[in-house]
From TrEMBL:
A GO MF term: glyoxalase III activity
Domain DJ-1/PfpI residues, every copy: 27-218
GO biological process: methylglyoxal catabolic process to D-lactate via S-lactoyl-glutathione
Matches recorded under InterPro entries: Class_I_gatase-like, DJ-1/PfpI, Prot/Nucl_acid_deglycase
PANTHER family with a match to the protein in the record: GLUTATHIONE-INDEPENDENT GLYOXALASE HSP31-RELATED, PROTEIN/NUCLEIC ACID DEGLYCASE DJ-1-RELATED
Record's protein name: DJ-1/PfpI domain-containing protein
GO cellular component: cytoplasm
Residue stretches spanning the membrane: none
Keyword set includes Lyase: yes
Keyword annotations from UniProtKB, A to Z: Lyase, Stress response
């Protein structure tokens, strides 16, 4: 069985304190490469459309992984990430063709959760029984989405996401509108984590989440398993 996944990246570029932010390359690259290698079709969209803004920290040093380099140096992929469709356009065209949606992190996505188009997109996927997945700060994009009964889609689920200690370690705990670990717990989810910077992901029904950039491949593997590829 094959399938089709929609990746939705942030379009946000600034933290509360004015520092630059964006999407984290590794968190798009590893899932994209794993899924396409397994025969899944993958589309990449962003909140506002156009070129995805990248967090510069994700394109240097140890954070710029082999998968990230392969992804960014592929001409075909570059054309996809420089000309993404907006979430509004994706919704207008319908999402019945997709089996899963995935939100990569980077601090930018923390500012996107209350976007009405993203909220509508996620609720459509969730209430149609499709896979909803996210990694690192990506679960921040899920915090406003509701199920058919009006509860958070995170309520009662096991959920991973960037931890408070990891946020403090990168010095951005005061530069985001909320701490993700705290918000996940406030929504009635069972927050799960491993040690800082340790790969960790959890599937709770058709909700798949991971803790940090190191967890992107684990999330992708869990999604592929649910889609039976």
């Amino acid at each position: 069985m094959g399938g089709k996944v929609l990746i939705v990246a942030t379009s946000a570029t600034k933290l509360l304190d004015g520092r630059d932010t964006g999407c984290w390359v590794e968190e798009v690259a590893s899932p994209y490469l794993l899924w396409t290698e397994k025969g899944l079709q993958v589309d990449i969209a962003s909140i506002s459309g156009g070129a995805i803004p990248w967090d510069e920290a994700s394109t240097s040093g140890d954070f710029y992984t082999a998968e990230a380099k392969k992804f960014m140096e592929d001409d075909k992929i570059r054309s996809l990430i420089e000309q993404t469709r907006s979430v509004k356009d994706v919704l207008a065209g319908g999402v019945d063709q997709y089996d899963a949606v995935f939100l990569p992190g980077g601090h930018g996505i923390v500012f996107d959760g209350n976007n009405s188009d993203l909220k509508a997109l996620l609720e459509k996927f969730w209430n149609d029984g499709k896979v909803v997945s996210a990694v690192c700060h990506g679960p921040a994009g899920l915090v406003y989405a509701k199920d058919a009964s009006g509860d958070s889609i995170l309520k009662g689920k096991q959920v991973a996401g960037f931890s408070n200690t990891e946020e403090v370690a990168v010095g951005k705990e005061k530069a985001v509108p909320f701490l993700l670990e705290d918000r996940i717990k406030e929504l009635g989810a069972d927050y799960k984590k491993d040690g800082d910077w340790t790969p960790f992901a959890v599937a709770s029904g058709k909700l798949v989440t991971g803790q940090n950039p190191q967890s992107s491949k684990k999330v992708a593997e869990l999604v592929a398993g649910i889609l039976k590829v």
